């Protein structure tokens, strides 16, 4: 009887240990929390657009050494963060998605490394959406991984995502859109402009505006988030109240460069605040 009771107790302890171990691993993306991983992977989307924006800016402003430094630093951060995301996952889907980013990055960075010229500018405009798509796929794969789905199709990520990770993702996407707005503003100059570029600029503008409205009514907002959203809304309102400046090249190059960075910084602050929200 004692031996049987001892076996039962040992079995229960073993099951409890397995359960605790699974609970710990399922709540972590390697050494990171899943909220942190969603935030970092979301930043990667922004960095793809930031690099393209800087290159197009340098096409008309080749002697801006601060912008050249920004491009160099952004490249380093992008590669390091991609490495961090790769090292912290064992999920086959996430690994596959990160590899897509890595492979495309090898081509993209060759264009970025050239002395700014029109031919490579066109290549960057044509490639930036591809690397953005792959970077976005990494975000989706990490969200799926957080739900215990480590392989298979990621097309149903929206149905599987938690509300908090969805809002972190949406806020993080605003950082990317802020840079993408400037990228397509520079791409709308006469020597590069075409109908697709015009459509993309308008599409980015509309998405920023709609997503900001969604963030303003999020149930996860607290006093600090509301204050930060108020600040970025006031900044965005300066763009909305005079759309012609955006769509008819009314901004000076440096002014647009700084505006996009201000918007990105504001949305980065908001995203970091959402990352720290605790659900009771």
SSE layout and pairing:
Blueprint: H1 2-26, E1 28-29, E2 32-33, H2 34-60, H3 65-87, H4 92-112, H5 118-146, H6 157-160, H7 163-187, H8 195-216, H9 223-240, H10 243-247, H11 253-275
Antiparallel strand pairs: 1-2
Helix pairs in contact: 2-3, 2-5, 2-7, 2-11, 3-4, 4-5, 7-8, 7-11, 8-9, 9-11
Determine the structural class based on helices, strands and strand pairing: mainly alpha
SSE pattern, N- to C-terminal: HEEHHHHHHHHHH
Shape: globular
Euclidean distance between termini CA atoms: 44 Å
Quote the beta fraction.
under 5%
**What does the main sheet amount to?**
2 strands, antiparallel
Low-confidence stretches: 8-25, 155-161
Number of helices: 11
Tell me the total number of β-strands. 2
Radius of gyration: 22 Å
Measured as a percent range, the helix fraction is: over 70%
Summed over residues and divided by their number, the pLDDT gives a mean of 89
Total domain count: 1
Give the strand order, joined by hyphens, for the main sheet: 1-2
């Amino acid at each position: 009887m004692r031996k049987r009771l001892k076996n039962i107790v040992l079995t229960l302890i073993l099951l409890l240990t397995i359960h605790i171990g699974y609970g710990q691993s399922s709540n972590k993306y390697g050494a990171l929390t899943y909220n942190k991983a969603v935030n970092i992977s979301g930043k990667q989307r922004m960095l793809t657009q930031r690099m393209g924006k800087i290159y197009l800016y340098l096409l008309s402003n080749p002697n801006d050494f601060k912008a050249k430094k920004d491009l160099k630093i952004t490249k380093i951060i992008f590669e390091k963060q991609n490495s961090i995301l790769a090292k912290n996952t064992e999920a086959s889907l996430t690994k596959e998605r990160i590899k897509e980013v890595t492979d495309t990055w090898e081509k993209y960075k060759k264009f970025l490394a050239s002395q700014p010229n029109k031919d490579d500018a066109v290549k960057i405009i044509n490639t930036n959406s591809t690397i953005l798509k792959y970077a976005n796929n990494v975000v989706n794969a990490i969200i799926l991984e957080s739900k215990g789905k480590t392989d298979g199709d990621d097309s149903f990520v929206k149905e599987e995502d938690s509300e908090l990770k969805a809002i972190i993702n949406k806020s993080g996407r605003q950082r990317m859109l802020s840079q993408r707005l400037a990228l397509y503003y520079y791409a709308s100059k006469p020597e590069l402009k075409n109908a697709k570029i015009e459509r993309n600029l308008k599409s980015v503008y509309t998405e920023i505006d709609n997503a900001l409205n969604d963030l303003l009514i999020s149930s996860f907002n607290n006093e600090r988030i509301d204050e930060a959203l108020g600040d970025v809304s006031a900044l965005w309102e300066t763009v909305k109240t005079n759309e012609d400046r955006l769509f008819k090249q009314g901004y000076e190059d440096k002014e647009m460069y700084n505006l996009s960075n201000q918007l990105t910084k504001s949305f980065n602050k908001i995203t970091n605040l959402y990352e720290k929200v605790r659900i009771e």
